[in-house]
Amino acid sequence: MAALSTVIEPELHNDIVSLNMVRDLTVEDNTAKFTLVLTTPACPLKDVFLQRCEQALIGKVDGIEKIDIKWDAKVPTDRRIHGRLDVPMNSLIAVASGKGGVGKSTVSMNLAVSLAEAGASVGLIDADILNPNIPMMAGLGHGRPKVEDDKMVPLDAYGVKLMSTGFLTTPDKPMILRGPMLHSAIRQFFTDVHWGKLDYMIVDLPPGTGDAPLSLAQSFPLTGVIIVTQPQEVALSDAIRSIAMFEKLNVPILGIVENMAGDFFGEGGGERLAEERGVPFLGRIPLDAEVRIGGDYGRPISVTQPDNPAGQAFHALAQAVAARASVVMLQSADVIPINVIS
Amino acid sequence: MAALSTVIEPELHNDIVSLNMVRDLTVEDNTAKFTLVLTTPACPLKDVFLQRCEQALIGKVDGIEKIDIKWDAKVPTDRRIHGRLDVPMNSLIAVASGKGGVGKSTVSMNLAVSLAEAGASVGLIDADILNPNIPMMAGLGHGRPKVEDDKMVPLDAYGVKLMSTGFLTTPDKPMILRGPMLHSAIRQFFTDVHWGKLDYMIVDLPPGTGDAPLSLAQSFPLTGVIIVTQPQEVALSDAIRSIAMFEKLNVPILGIVENMAGDFFGEGGGERLAEERGVPFLGRIPLDAEVRIGGDYGRPISVTQPDNPAGQAFHALAQAVAARASVVMLQSADVIPINVIS
């Protein structure tokens, strides 16, 4: 155990023993067996931990020649959520964009699905009340939620629990709602739905810096927000406005995703913006017709074509987001990390 | 003159003499000379008129072997505008989209510039108050309007008079405005600006069916609206919502433009939608990196690369829009067309 306390969690800057990540340590013959409890099942650092634990134990501790790690994960709880929303979820991550059409819903859907595939329990609220695209992207364009005990049962797609106004209306009859009505509609998606216990609740926000994203960001205790942008200059100025709005509202910015990178829109604008604004760059998703086709036919590319470069990019994005969310939750907790995890 | 009254205006379904389009008819030697007053300088039918007038006169009227047409244009006045807005403009055309990011501002800018190139006097209001993209697209990112006699002087780009909140703010300080404030900001762009006399005022609306486009569409006497969409299925359901909103508000729909057609987003969705909804299809703009680059650097492709396929498509679009607007204005007038033109 003492030897393992030299292994430092690279993002939380504390050792894994203090962080209470090491459980059930036993030594059998020449093998050290223990469980390592990560802060997210989508942890990108498994290999790093394995390597560092080997370095700390093998040859350093007498009689240890092998290690056998059992992996577990417990998403830390964002304490700010409790008491404000009666929904058993550990974290609440918003996906935002300065302008529409940058692929925010595509990113939300593939992020949620990738986290679910990694073993997390995930909910996705389509908060773009006026233009709900998630149902079509999930292949549930004609879905209708059942009602049990006066609450709606979310629909399921690829292991993600979904709610959207798209399940309650049809495109032919648009909802022309003004600001305050939007707000109460979204609130019901939190309170009047059987979500069960969730590690991650992803909220696909309406685009822009208008009434709807503003009300939402103010009303709910967001763990953090991801800003989706496109690489071109015209899109970046919209992204800057969005970042400025969330900074004003004191919502932690988990980072920037550059979507649709490639010949048409260019490449690198999102990363440059992240550097300029001093926020993390979470990844770049290539412009790929397969992504669009997947969205049109309800087959998210991160599930259906995981080896496609865009599919791989979405998986890497999910890991980066999960890691950043863990860091934000643990750093913003009122208590020291060890108490949060235990 | 009697012979010319057999020439029918193909869109207004009336003959060009009754429509008061023929002026100053004289016969010199064997040549009939007259002025043909079109309803828009961007008229796509010049060749058709020339051919039909030749057919009607040459060999049909004794002694006429040649014709010599002088072209003129007078955009009809949308009578509904007068009395409601104290701005001397003949028509007010909104550019809308069901969702953002479909290239609505790109279409607005290239449409305005193409109409100006054809000889019309054109104004463009960037009504996307929260995400003003027109300044960058016009190459006037740091422009500031002068003030004369307590009114703002619009900026000029490629012969188009422009107003945008982008000239009054910076991206670093986003305007977080709620619904009612948006409305009064836009109203000032009509009333507190030295526009001069305009044939066409183009209004680049905020995307979607939320507060902002709704207030605008209700507050101003729109000649008609153009719906910009992308070809893919997910974008079409947003376009359907937008069409339904304008139909509810009794705003004439001039037609649908399919933007960014090509490998990535697909092709044909906009045209199919137009057929299904029984509204005109105005044209298809190909997905072309040059369009994006032109937008990022303030060089609208319809001016800087008129021979590029996208540049040509924008010119054809401007003609189609101008023709449709003329038809709507003349058909919706309380009086018979001849009185409107004279």
Work out the helicity level of chain A: 25-40%
Write down the secondary-structure element order of chain A.
EEEEHEEHEHEEEEHEHEHEHEHHHH
Q: How much is the radius of gyration of chain A in Å?
A: 21 Å
Helical stretch tally of chain A:
11
Q: Oligomeric status of the shown chains?
A: homodimer
Query: What's the β-strand tally of chain A?
Result: 15
Low-pLDDT regions of chain A = 334-342
Structural domain count of chain A: 2
Which fold name fills CATH's third level, the topology of the largest domain in chain A?
Rossmann fold
State the largest interface: A-B, 51 and 51 residues
Shape label of chain A? globular
- CATH 2nd-level architecture of the largest domain in chain A: 3-Layer(aba) Sandwich
Quote the distance from N terminus to C terminus of chain A: 17 Å
Helix/strand-derived category of chain A reads alpha/beta
Text of the CATH class of the largest domain in chain A: Alpha Beta
How can the largest sheet of chain A be summarized?
A: 8 strands, mixed
**Range of strand content of chain A:** 15-25%
Q: What's the CATH H-level superfamily name of the largest domain in chain A?
A: P-loop containing nucleotide triphosphate hydrolases
Strand order of the largest sheet of chain A: 10-11-7-12-6-13-14-15
Mean pLDDT of chain A: 87
